[in-house]
Amino acid sequence: MEEENNLNSKDTQNTFLKGSAWMTFGSIASRILGALYIIPWYAWMGAYGNIANALTARSYNIYTIFILISTAGIPGAIAKQVAKYNALNEYGIGRKLFHRGLVLMAILGVVSAAIMYSVSPLLASNGSQSDPRQVAVMRSLSYAILIIPILSIMRGYFQGYADMMPSAMSQFVEQFARVVWMLLTAFVIMQMQRGSYVHAVIQSNLAAAIGAAFGIGLLVWFLFSRKKQLDSLVAHSNNRLRVSTTQLFVEIIEQAIPFIIIDSGITLFSLVDQYTFHPMIAGLVHASSDTIEDWYALFGLNANKLIMIIVSLASAMAVTAIPLLSAAHTRGDFRSISRQIANTMDLFLFVMIPAAFGMAAISRPIYTVFYGPDPLGSKVLYLSAFTAISLGLFTVLMAILQGLSENGLAIKYLVLGLILKGILQFPMIFLFKIYGPLVATNLGLLVIVLLSLKHLEVQYDFNLNRTSRRLIGITAFSIGMFLIVKLVEMGLGKFLNPDHRITALILVILSVSVGTAFYGFAALKTDLAQKIMGSRIENILVKFHIHG
Questions:
Q1: DSSP string of 285-313?
Q2: Quick check: 404 and 325 in contact, CB under 8 A?
């Protein structure tokens, strides 16, 4: 019996690792595609690049909220419920739940899309005036909301079977189709037809619906390819349980509401900027409406797009521990909870801090690679890189609190941080102009982070002192890396122009290589990497003959 339990435990771990690998692939591949398309797309927009990005950023902030509401955390809940009934050999109930869920999500999609389409004229404002261009762009995104809820629940169904590959592949295909449509239409409209940049942005946003349709198509194919296997499982179900689908959905929706609020946290911070930056900055400086929109685009989308790459990478590595945290909480194993929180935080900081410092160090050449030379844009990216640490910490800590069923507390902290952001917005813009929103965001997030850490320390005996000590070491090495990278960049900058895309790309590659080598060597030589990553780092030590 003990041997059987060990085998089951091993199988569970292997399934988890395999699933994590597929989901990480899907997430990273999608992020990379979502970043690389910027280079040609922005170039083809010409002088309208920043205004086009501002229109996109404002629309996507609203779109994200509607997507969260229209999916309502139901796909994740469906995955959980399907997995539960599958474990009880009640595959028929899981299928029934999926079929009913498809109907529910289709209805939610239609209602949400109709609302977004209808209220776009009210939402299409920069805080001071309604923008007809924004209305058209926002409405083009509403078509995606029609079908993305269906895409989400299909992914949830496969995840309920611990089959992550269809979800990951559909995520990649969705993003690939989206990027192809965006680039194709932008090239045709802006380069061949010499048409309107607004029309190009509308088509770029319509790409979300195109990508979702391709994602659904792939998942339908996976369903048919696995039909015989799934039918066999349903046919051999126990069929002993009788479950009210209505009651199931009531419970699921009740559970989903906190997830909607928490998952929309970063978007809510962005919405404060979206509706306050324009009127506030207009009251302080004399500038045209389009110039202010250019400034908004610098931090609202341009810099944000780049920093979210490193936020997602670091978070992806850290939040793999969240299911383990949830399991420990269910068992009431506080020692394991404390250890897991510490490991999650250590791993996150180990990756996030150097990544943020590194992006700050090469802000000028990396901004050139993606958007072309822009001194102001580079400075905004420099500050945004450090904001990435706050955003990443917020993401991970909210996930930890959710894993511990502390949804109410997470919402309370989020509301407090948003109130502080709102209060500080004007004073910070008054003091720091275009950088003000980033400062206000950092201060709002900092309050959430500190309150969350203190709660975890008191309630779950999280060893904050140990993590703080490791943070000092990580920060010290990151500062050292920052200085070395800046020296390399300055030295190479005498021969390689950071304002030209190709030479800027070479600068980025060489600087990142030197910085990564320094940080990795320092972390290994001082045993910091070994303490944080444990046995995972042993192969590297053996390969390079490095000893602490």
A1: S---HHHHHHHHHIIIIIHHHHHHHHHHH
A2: yes
Instruction: Indicate the SS3 state at residue 125.
Output: strand
* CA distance linking residue 503 with residue 509, whole number of Å: 10
Number of H helices, E strands in the chain: 23, 0
Q: What are the pLDDT digits (tens) for 244-274? A: 767 666 766 766 777 778 878 888 999 999 9
94 touches 85 (CB < 8 A): yes
Least Cα distance to 132 among 142, 143, 120 occurs for: 120
Give how far Cα 284 sits from Cα of 169, 277, 428, 460, Å.
Answer: 48, 11, 12, 47
Residue 284 domain boundaries: 264-548
SS3 130: strand
Tally the domains of the chain.
2
The pair of three-digit structure tokens given for residue 370, joined into one six-digit string: 């993606």
Task: State the pLDDT confidence band at 236, using cuts at 50, 70 and 90.
Answer: confident
* CA 47/CA 52 separation, integer angstroms: 9
pLDDT beyond 60 at 50: yes
Taking the model in full, what pTM does it have? Answer: 0.81
Q: Token digits for 38?
A: 């910027």
Does residue 539 share a domain with residue 402? yes
Indicate the average pLDDT of the chain.
84
pLDDT of residue 5: 40
Q: What is the maximum alpha-carbon separation in the chain?
A: 77
Between CA 298 and CA 23 the distance in angstroms is 30
With beta carbons less than 8 A apart as the criterion, state whether 158 and 167 touch.
yes
Is 1 within the bounds of a domain? no
Residue 471: predicted pLDDT: 93
Evaluate whether residue 305 is within a structural domain. Answer: yes
Dihedrals φ, ψ of 493, to 5°? -65, -20
Q: Provide CB contacts within 8 A for 216, sequence distance 6+.
A: 147, 150, 151, 154, 170
How does residue 76 score in pLDDT terms, banded at 50, 70 and 90?
low
Amino acid at 375: P
CA dihedral (109, 112, 117, 118) positive or negative:
positive
Tell me: do 383 and 433 sit in the same domain. Answer: yes
Helix (H/G/I), strand (E/B), else coil: 131: coil
Residue 534, pLDDT score: 66
Is 248 a domain residue? no
Q: Verify that 101 and 35 share a domain, yes or no.
A: yes
The pLDDT of 91-100, averaged and rounded, is 82
Residue 319 pLDDT greater than 60, yes or no: no
